Amino acid sequence: AITLPLAAHQCRLLAQLENLQPTVKNLAERLRYEVSVRGKQLGWSEKVARFHYKKNLRRIMTELYVRDNCHPFKATLLVWVQVPMWVCVSLALRNCSVGATGSEVQEQFSAGGALWFTDLTAPDSTWILPVSLGLVNLLIVEV
């Protein structure tokens, strides 16, 4: 419920960033020309001209990010939500399976399955669940 809207938001941000690339390229070329002309007028060295070019390009990029509200760091929000969720779910599953020392929990796991996996304490001999989980994760990554 939380990660799907964040994934959609991340895709929108990445599309906006991709759409900015031609504008950035044109502005960078124009800035390179302006800095080289100004550098020749003022007698700047190559190092000073490069410094002014990078400084002004960063300023222009920041202005574009603010204008379009698509800073690249916002695209990492999904990772900052998914990693803690993955850790919590992994720890919860580990505690349910390994940390359960009571016989009541073991009995529920051995009798609480469904379909072809009736015993949750036994390994999946058909490999259906691990393979399907891997394929679903691959699909999520590729989409």
UniProtKB/TrEMBL annotation:
GO biological process: mitochondrial respiratory chain complex IV assembly; protein insertion into mitochondrial inner membrane from matrix
Transmembrane segment boundaries: none
Protein's cellular compartments: Membrane
Coarse class of the protein's main subcellular location: membrane
UniProt keywords, alphabetically: Membrane, Transmembrane, Transmembrane helix
Topology of the protein relative to the lipid bilayer: Multi-pass membrane protein
Recorded GO MF terms: membrane insertase activity
KW Transmembrane helix (keyword) present: yes
Domain of life, per lineage: Eukaryota
GO cellular component terms listed in the entry, alphabetical order: mitochondrial inner membrane
Xref: PANTHER family: CYTOCHROME C OXIDASE ASSEMBLY PROTEIN COX18, MITOCHONDRIAL, OXA1
Name assigned to this protein: COX18 protein
Organism whose genome encodes this protein: Eolophus roseicapilla (Galah cockatoo)
